[in-house]
Amino acid sequence: MRKILEQCPTCGGELAVTQLSCTNCETVILGRYAPCLFCRLSPENLRFLEVFVKNRGNVKEMERELGVSYWAIRNRLNEVVAAMGFEAEPAAAREETSAARRDVLEQLNRGEITVAEAAELLKRTEG
After folding, report:
1. Is the CB of residue 33 less than 8 Å from the CB of residue 18?
2. Per-residue confidence in pLDDT tens, the chain, 127 aa
């Protein structure tokens, strides 16, 4: 998918859509329009969202398809959220960190990861 320009190629300033034209009747609408949220995303982030939607947000399926860990997917999702201008609430971030730590400890308890791997993952969740 080809994206519209977001920055001026001359000075780097922000561009605004100011005219829309009908390809059928030639009606022209003048104004100042902001691009959609998705237009601001990089091609990599758009591809990530496509995989996210295709898998209905199922992180396990995304792990299989993308060949990356849960944490890589969560980090990428956080990047997309930030790129779209949304901010996570501090309480939600604390809750997510707590859940992440529990997940690591459960993996360790089930013998899926080693103590060293758990320690490294827990260190990363401290942010």
Report:
1. yes
2. 566 777 788 998 888 888 889 999 999 998 887 777 887 788 899 999 999 999 999 999 999 999 988 888 988 898 899 888 887 555 566 677 778 888 888 888 999 999 999 888 888 877 5
Q: Greatest CA separation found in the chain?
A: 68
In the chain, the amino acid numbered 67 is G
- The answer to whether the CB of 33 falls within 8 A of the CB of 17 is yes
Residues 6 or more apart whose CB falls under 8 angstroms from that of 13 comprise 7
| pTM, full prediction | 0.52
CA nearest to 76, candidates 27, 101, 42: 42
DSSP class of 113: S
